[in-house]
């Protein structure tokens, strides 16, 4: 059994959790999320904690046990605090601007690149080269950040491109001339 899966999930004040028909729904000040539970993963909702359990005798349930505990913990954290990812844009003339729910990138191509943000996600720009994405759903936030990064991934010679703020680009030496 997973050590992470055994830990109870604390429910902060202002967050409501309810389980109905194999689905867990979490509501909080930032929004609401729901997830369908697989067969064999059981929840016990107490006053201030959620305990994830597994049906005994099935190896497949043990595999998903820790995963579902982490997913539910992320749901609780998302509706109470929210998640954010910071992307940095490096390169001469590379920049981003926010127009409502659209991001307009200038990434060295012959045309500007527009990116539509999904509903429930917000973006803010500091210094035209630092993009902060905020959302309630951690999975969706990571997926959108990866799509934005793929518009111009960082290259190893000059480090130009879009990277996560925590990412470290290993630089290569260029060709040496004689």
Q: Class by helix and strand content?
A: alpha+beta
| SSE topology string | HEEEEEEHEEEEEEHE
Mean pLDDT: 87
What's the CATH C level of the largest domain?
Answer: Alpha Beta
Question: Percent helix among the residues?
Answer: 10-25%
- Number of discrete helical segments: 3
Low-confidence stretches: none
Q: What CATH architecture label of the largest domain applies?
A: Alpha-Beta Complex
Please explain how this structure is put together:
- With 178 residues, the protein is α+β, with helices and mostly antiparallel strands.
- It folds into two domains: 3-80, Outer Surface Protein A, domain 3 (Alpha-Beta Complex), CATH 3.90.930.12; 83-164, Outer Surface Protein A, domain 3, CATH 3.90.930.12.
- Helices cover 21% and strands 38% of the residues.
- It is built from three helices and 13 strands.
- It has helices at 3-6, 59-80, 138-149, and strands spanning 9-10, 16-20, 23-28, 31-36, 41-45, 49-54, 83-90, 95-99, 102-106, 113-116, 122-126, 130-135, 161-164.
- The strands form four sheets. It has a four-stranded antiparallel sheet, with helices on one face. It has a three-stranded antiparallel sheet with strand order 1-6-5. A three-stranded antiparallel sheet has the order 2-3-4.
- A hairpin with a 3-residue loop joins β11 (122-126) and β12.
- The chain is elongated, with a radius of gyration of 21 Å.
- The N and C termini lie far apart (61 Å).
- The model has no long low-confidence stretch (mean pLDDT 87).
């Amino acid at each position: 059994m997973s050590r992470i899966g055994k830990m109870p999930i604390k429910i902060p004040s202002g967050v409501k959790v309810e389980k109905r028909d194999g689905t867990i729904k979490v509501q909080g000040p930032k929004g609401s999320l729901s997830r369908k539970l697989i067969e064999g993963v059981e929840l016990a909702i107490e006053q201030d904690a959620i305990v994830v359990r597994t049906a005994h005798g099935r190896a497949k349930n043990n595999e998903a046990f820790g995963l579902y505990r982490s997913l539910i913990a992320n749901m609780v954290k998302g509706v109470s605090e929210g998640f954010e990812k910071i992307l940095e844009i490096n390169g001469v003339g590379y920049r981003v601007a926010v127009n409502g729910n659209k991001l307009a990138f200038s990434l060295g191509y012959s045309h500007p690149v527009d990116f539509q943000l999904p509903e429930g996600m917000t973006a803010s720009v500091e210094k035209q080269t630092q993009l902060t994405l905020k959302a309630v759903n951690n999975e969706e936030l990571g997926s959108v950040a990866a799509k934005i990064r793929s518009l111009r991934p960082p290259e190893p010679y000059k480090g130009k491109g879009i990277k996560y703020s925590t990412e470290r680009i290993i630089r290569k030496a260029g060709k040496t001339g004689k």
